[in-house]
Structures are given as C-alpha cells and as structure tokens.
Amino acid sequence: MSTAPTIPVDLIAPAFNPATFGIGKREVIDGIFARLRKDYPLAIAEVPGYDPHWIVTKYDDIREISRQDHLFHSADRSKTLASQLAEQLMRSYTGGLPTIFKTLVHMDDPEHAEHRAVTQPHFYPQAVAKLEPQIRETARRYIDAFLAKGQGADFATELAFRYPAEVVLTLIGVPKEDHAKMLDLTHWLFTYADPDLCRPGANITDPQEIIKTWDIVYSEFKNYYESMIRDRQQCPVNDLTSVIANGKIGGCPMNERNMISYLVIASTAGHDTTSATTAMGMWTLAENPEIFRKVKDNPSLIPGFVEETIRWTSPVQQFVRSATEDYVLRGQQIRKGDLLYLSYISGNRDEEAFPDPFRFDPERSPNRHVGFGYGPHICLGQHLARLEMKILWEELLPRLASVQMAAPGKFAESEFVCGPKYVPINYTLA
Amino acid sequence: MNTQPWRKYQCVLCGEIYDEELGVPEFDIAPGTRWEDVRDDWLCMACGAPKSEYVLLED
C-alpha cells in the first residue's frame, strides 16, 4: 500500500465530517470530489482515527466494484464510513460482530440473495404498479394539507418527509399513529449528527455517538416489532411484516437479528431516500423557474425529471466495501482486506459519465446514475420510489403556477444518507 | 418477418424490464429488437446482471 497514491489529508478529511455535507447544497463536498476525480480518482485516504480507505470517485469504478459482490464484500466490516473507535464499539455492542444491524445492505451471498428473495417480488414494477391508486390518494391528501398551510410552509418537513413515510409504512403494516415515531427513528439512524434531526440528548460531537445511537435505534425497533412479528406469524395479513415474519431461509424462519434488521431497513431507507430526493426536487424547481415551467407544461417529462432528481440528490452518499482478494482497478493494486469507500455522489457527477454533470437536466438521456447503487445490492425499493415521486409531481405541478424559495434552504449534516431538511416555499396556485 | 406478440423479459435481481417493442434506443437497441437478438454480453441496464438472469415476463 505504501506505493499507492495517497490523498492529502487536508483535502479528504472534510469529507469524513458530517457537517461538511450540510454546507449550502453540498457545494463544498462537490468541490472536494471534483478535485479527487481529477487528481486522485482512485487513491487512499489516511485520515487520523480511521483505517485507510480507497476513495472510489469514478462512475465506472463504482459499477465495477458493485457488480462483483464476491470480490468486494458488504458483511465483513462496517458498511458505512466508520472510525476505528466506532468499529471497536460496534464489536463491543454486538459481541464481536462488525455491525449493529444485519440488513440486506450488510449481507453477502448466499445470505443476501436468500433474504432479498423473500420480499423482492413485492417490489417488482408490476407489483408496485398495483399500488398506484392508493399512493395517488395519499399524495393528493398530503398536497391538500400542505397547500392549506399557506405561503412559507416547509416542503421538506410537511410533505417530503411524511408522504413517502406513510406509503412504505402502510405497506409494512405500521399503524398511522406510529408513523411519527418511525420518522424520528429514521432521522436518528441516518442523520445522527445533524443538530435538528439527531436523537434528543445525543452528543453529536462525540465520534462514538453514531454507534450509541444505532444501538438505541435497533433496540427501539426490536421492541416495536416483536409483538407485531409474533402476531403476523400466527395470523398473516396483506402486509410486508407478514412477508418478512413468515419468510423462509433454507426452509427455516429468519433469525431474530436478520428479521428485525429487515424491518429496520424497510422502515427507514424505505422512505428517507425518497424524502430527500423529493425535497431536492422541489428546491430545484423553486430555484429554476425555467425547469419548473418546462416540466409543468410537459408532464411527459416527469419520469425524466424524477430520474434526474435521483442523480442530483444521490441521497445514499457512500457505502464501504472490503476486498476479499487482491484486485487491480484503474491500474492500482487493491490488496485483500483493503477498504473501499464508494462515493455515489461523486459517481453521479463524473464528467466522463455525465456530460455537463452540474447541470440539472430533466431530459438527460441516457441517465443511468448510481443513485440506487448497482449490482446485486441495487436498491430493493427503486421502482416504488420512482412511482411515488412520479405520482407526486403529476398531482402537484398542475396545482401550481409558480414556486420560489421563501427563505434559504438547509441541507442535513450527514456523511451517509441525507438530503434537504428545510425547503420553505412560496407559490402561486394555478 | 416475426409476427409473434412482443414479449417482455425481466431481470430477476432488480426487476428491470426489457420490452421487445420498445428496445433501448438510448443504448442503440432499436425498438422491435427481439430478446434473442440482443447481444449475449448484454448486462441489465440497472444492476449489471447478465442476460442469463432475465426471465420471460408472463402476462
């Protein structure tokens, strides 16, 4: 590794700090990764307190790694950027395991394929298409409620956070009265260091805070879902909890940790990423009246607009893989055991993959971004997410004549999953 | 000339659908390209799975 290129610490260290992601609309982060793509497209970050990580900035490299799960594992180390202290703490909390959770994200084959198969058919396009009427009714209801709040209302917290949450939590079988709690737990999980979204009482200056909070989140979800799981095992109904509770792995029920983790990822990632993308979509429309006009006047552009908002937002900003054997990538020697930080926000701004990548273009084609990842771990809920957002814009845009930001928006502070947390808008009705 | 109905094939890993009637013009696969005429090294556009991971989508 001593001959591998190393990124100057002062260049890469800010990208290891959640606060950097909350500056503006991530222009500092964009600047860091633009510099890396140019001068250090595949190089090692040696940031104090962290094991060395290859920083993978290029679209093609991210896809090459992601397509080869057997070479680049998800289960052996932390799946997200974690300090050495955090990794030690995770092993301490779990009795030696590398991660608090054992979601699909944290699995390798055959375990990953076996668990994904339990719910995969329910997320195929033809399955989610059947949900359109109820999703559309939900969208209309949230739009009505948002517009009733009048000028200056926060699109992020009043609509973008809540609408996708209700859609997926209803599918899971979570009663409406518990959705607010699920939303809080989601924010504690993904935006553990954001001063507005973190767990109350959390010490966000403590580098170990993420693990403490994740352990609490796991316990909260376990306590919440235990009785529902037992109930669904005895009496299945038409919801995802029933599917997961009765899912078989090799003919046997899932173990408890895997089952709870499955529900955790469905209950959190199942909406938070869509929320981020929806909020960013409105922020973009509010600041770009020509884009608003183009998409409003041409509803056939909505699917392309949705796809571009996913590329633009890249709410899952990074995942980490560990190499299972030596591998040569972009002329660099990756060694067995090396950690690789895949930057999806960088991949989605790669100048060699996307012409004029810092221009938002609802007609961009092709637009095969990595916002949903790539390879066998590609987002399970991608088709549901697309449908939700397509429906929302189909219902909302005809009701607006114009939209503008009422005050500066704010981005959440997270190096993992995040998007806008405050998008206040003024508008005129159609 | 093949007059059979257009078929759809689905990637089992991610659900992406290949529709023979539509093709994938953005990647130079013309509308009307039958699945057997799609090159053997075709990868799923969404997840990169090989052609072998696709199944015929029944109505």
Helix content of chain A: 40-55%
Global shape of chain B: globular
Question: What is the ordering of alpha helices and beta strands of chain B?
Answer: EEE
Radius of gyration of chain B: 11 Å
| CATH homologous superfamily heading of chain A | Cytochrome P450
Count structural domains of chain A: 1
Q: Termini of chain A, distance in Å? A: 61 Å
Tell me the strand order in the biggest sheet of chain B.
Answer: 2-1-3
Q: How is the main sheet of chain B built? A: 3 strands, antiparallel
Distance between the termini of chain B: 23 Å
User: What proportion of the residues of chain B is helical, as a percent range?
Assistant: under 10%
Biggest beta sheet attributes of chain A: 5 strands, mixed
Short description:
With about 425 residues, chain A is of the alpha+beta class. Chain A has helices spanning about 10, 20, 25-40, 60-65, 85-95, 110-120, 125-130, 130-150, 155-160, 160-170, 180-190, 210-235, 240-245, 255-285, 290-295, 300-315, 345, 380-395; strands at about 40-45, 55, 70-75, 250, 250-255, 320-325, 325-330, 330-335, 340-345, 400-405, 410, 420, 425-430.
Question: What do these coordinates show?
Answer:
The complex is a heterodimer of chains A (430) and B (59). Chain A has a single domain (9-429), classed as Cytochrome P450 (Cytochrome p450, Orthogonal Bundle). In chain A, 47% of the residues lie in helices and 11% in strands. Chain A contains 18 helices and 13 strands. In chain A, helix 10 (162-172) crosses helix 11 and helix 14 (256-287) packs parallel to helix 18 (382-396). Chain A is globular and about 60 Å long. The model of chain A has no long low-confidence stretch (mean pLDDT 96). In chain B, 0% of the residues lie in helices and 17% in strands. Chain B is globular and about 30 Å long. The A-B interface holds A 63, 66-67, 120, 123-126, 365-366, 368, 372, 374-376, 378, 382-383 and B 10, 12-15, 17, 26-27, 45-49, 57.
